[in-house]
Description:
Pfam families: Methyltransf_11 (PF08241). The chain is α/β, with parallel strands linked by helices. It has eight helices and eight strands, in the order ααβαβαβαβαβααβββ.
Amino acid sequence: xxxxxxxxxIDTFAALSDKWWDMKGPMxxxxxxxPIRVDYITDAIRRVKGTLPEQAPLQNLRILDIGCGGGLxxxxxxxxxxxxxxxxxxxxxxDAARTHAKASGLDITYHCQSAEDLAASGATFDVIYAxxxxxxxxxxxxxxxxxxxxxxxxxxxxxxxxxxxxxAIALAKYALEYIVRVxxxxxxxxxxxxxxxxxxxxFAAVGILLDDATGFAPRPGGFSQVASLAINYxxxxxxxxxxxxxx
Length: 247
């Protein structure tokens, strides 16, 4: 049966599942990347939906975190008031996410489930994001279609990923995995890195316009937004038309 799930990717991340909340462990790069990701996601929501409340800016928004891992992004989204659902196909990661959310007093719904299976249930969301995920899926077109099925009218889609360029391959694959070793070897397959134009085309095919993109670059203590999309980037948008007319 066709699926977005790549068993090799599941095995890689399952081996790391007890390390999700270790700030000095293999997930350290994702922890340092989280604040800028939160900023970009909330900016994308604001851009599509207009002014957000100062207190609990994401209140009443149904938010889906695809490939949530141990909950590194789901938790700040919940703290901002979002009604957050996190899904991941790695069961130990979901266990870690549930345990940490409970210890943190956060009400987050977690499921060990693929995007296409959740879409088949008829669930819809106001905001869907997949951060550092799309470069790990087995069938990108199916993944995009599942997102389109779940995105509510006037919904917001946000992705962060790695560009398929020589600088990105050199840094995100070889330098991080084999030289400085801050990412476990085998985490990335450069063939799955995706160019912004490819994402725009694939989402346009299901009626979604990705009309904003920004690059991310490391700085002391974290990351900042930059003009260049050559390595890490975020991309976001919404429906081209009302969902009923989007095909």
